[in-house]
Specification:
Number of domains: 2
Number of strands: 13
Distance between the termini: 41 Å
Length: 334
């Protein structure tokens, strides 16, 4: 499949469109570095609101459009350009696109890329990007698949060192420290462009992890700016089978708050009202047998402006503010 993708992109204008979270920017960076030596140009775009690549997102000169970790709209197909989908989220219109690399069983899009396109690479930067995306989408440190685990232990032992946790009796891996920095772009600017530009501009992880690159410095500044936002305590109410909280914040913090406020008994949804839109994040405790992605997808048939999805333990959605009351009413009976 790697050969097929390279041949399609060789000597052509390529645009990579990705989700704006850690898995999205890392998967886009993997594809960028793979194709840059072969394509005429490679441009990138990150997005998350809505979770959909639409015709207006695509540059006029793009001859190949690659959507990583985000859904392409069926409307972008059939316009004289090649459309490739590389994703691990549930998707029902894959037959409309020219190249499809899709597996819902993968924890992250980066592990999907590693397994299907990277031939189990031992390159330290490829392994770093793969694992940061893996942890960014909820991958478990004791479930890293082989040969990814063995290759990472051999190629970047510094990133695989166990560190004592100050929050519980367990441990974390050094590489996990760097996930949050790649999510700061979407939280501050509602865009993953700055984290992705950092990952595109380097070919090893040290300028990022050692904070030697100017954009790495900028991401650390973002982290400091977000500390107060993460301490907010919105009111949580139970609606139907889930807990819900509604905020109105200029920054994209609903996902962090959902992760902080989650309880073992019920999933939680935190909704952020931003201008005319509601942007929501859903989180599910590991102990619960509940699929967030499928739960959210069920609202698309009942609310025209609703776009949502995700995977088992985490999901996201957008809808028009005018439809918020309808959504809350539907939640009561789901």
């Amino acid at each position: 499949m790697q050969h097929t993708l390279i041949e399609v992109c060789k000597g052509r204008h390529v645009q990579i469109c990705s989700h704006w979270d850690a898995d999205g920017v890392c998967s886009a960076a993997l594809i960028y570095h793979l194709l840059k030596p072969h394509a005429l140009t490679v441009r990138t775009k990150t997005k998350g609101m809505p979770f959909l690549i639409e015709d207006q997102d695509i540059e006029k000169e793009a001859e190949v459009v690659i959507c990583t970790d985000i859904q392409p709209s069926p409307d972008i197909a059939g316009k004289g350009r090649v459309i490739a989908l590389i994703d691990h989220h549930p998707f029902s219109n894959a037959e409309k696109f020219d190249i499809v690399i899709h597996d819902e069983k993968e924890v992250s899009t980066t592990t999907l890329i590693y397994n299907r396109l990277m031939q189990n690479s031992k390159d330290p930067y490829v392994l770093f990007l793969t694992l940061v995306g893996y942890f960014g989408d909820g991958g478990k440190r004791d479930a890293i698949p082989e040969p990814l685990l063995s290759n990472a232990m051999e190629a970047m032992p510094d990133m695989m060192q166990k560190q004592e946790s100050h929050f519980n009796e367990g441990y974390f891996l050094e590489i996990e420290r760097h996930v949050s920095a790649l999510n700061t772009g979407k939280r501050i600017n509602w865009s993953g462009d700055i984290p992705l530009e950092l990952l595109k501009s380097i070919d090893s992880y040290e300028p990022f992890t050692n904070i030697r690159h100017p954009l790495a410095v900028q991401l650390q500044q973002y982290k400091a700016m977000l500390k107060n936002d993460y301490s907010k305590q919105p009111e949580v109410k139970q609606i139907g089978k889930v807990d819900c909280a509604i905020i109105a914040e200029p920054r994209n913090i609903q996902g962090v708050l959902a992760a902080k406020l989650i309880k073992p008994e019920r999933p939680i949804i935190v909704m952020n009202i931003v201008e005319h839109l509601v942007i929501g994040s859903m989180r599910v405790h590991d102990n619960l047998d509940f699929d967030a992605g499928k739960f959210l997808e069920g609202f698309e048939k009942d609310i025209k402006t609703f776009i949502g999805g995700g995977h088992e333990k985490a999901g996201g959605f957008t809808l028009e503010k005018n439809d918020l009351e309808l959504f809350l009413e539907l939640l009561k009976n789901r």
